[in-house]
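quick q for whoever's on today - can somebody do inverse folding on this one?? i tried earlier but teh output was garbage lol. tokens:
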């Protein structure tokens, strides 16, 4: 229900803001602001996204909990979508999501409302394809493929076919 409300309310807010701002500064300046925020937003999303990807790689590399860097990446992605959407309200929310302090507050607010069942990484992780038995150091796990030996001719060609 709240999603339906958002799909109706956000365009209404944007239309009202376009009318108000356009009436004060004019159509040309309003369109220029929308264009500049889209270009600036794209540049900022690209820079913030690269930093977020580095943090995600680092958290996986050190086997730390990746939930905060992943949430940062998701919020940056949402910010990019909002900044490319023409409008003043979506631009304000998009630029807010690009600030690390706002993302940190939003992450902690979301973390209080989401319950994580469990998290494990590394050699002790138990996934759906991992054997439940402990591994021994003298056993190497791997995959193999059977290769049939090449077939050899059992008789000479009949002469009906060319070689």
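ok took a stab at it. sequence:
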């Amino acid at each position: 229900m709240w999603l339906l409300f958002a799909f109706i309310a956000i365009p209404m807010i944007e239309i009202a803001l376009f009318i108000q701002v356009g009436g004060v500064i004019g159509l040309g300046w309003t369109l220029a602001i929308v264009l500049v925020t889209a270009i600036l937003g794209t540049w900022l999303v690209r820079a913030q996204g690269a930093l977020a990807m580095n943090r995600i790689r680092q958290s996986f590399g050190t086997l730390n909990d990746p939930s905060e860097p992943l949430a940062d990446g998701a919020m940056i992605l949402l910010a990019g979508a909002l900044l490319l959407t023409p409008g003043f309200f979506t631009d304000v929310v998009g630029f807010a999501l690009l600030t690390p302090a706002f993302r940190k507050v939003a992450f902690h607010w979301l973390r209080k409302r989401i319950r994580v069942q469990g998290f494990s990484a590394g050699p002790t992780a138990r996934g759906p394809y991992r054997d439940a038995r402990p591994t021994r150091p003298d056993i190497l796990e791997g995959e193999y493929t059977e290769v049939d030996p090449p077939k050899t001719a059992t008789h000479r060609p009949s002469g009906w076919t060319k070689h």
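fwiw Helices lie at 2-25, 27-61, 67-84, 88-98, 100-113. also Residues 54 and 81 are 21 Å apart (CA to CA). so keep that in mind when u check it
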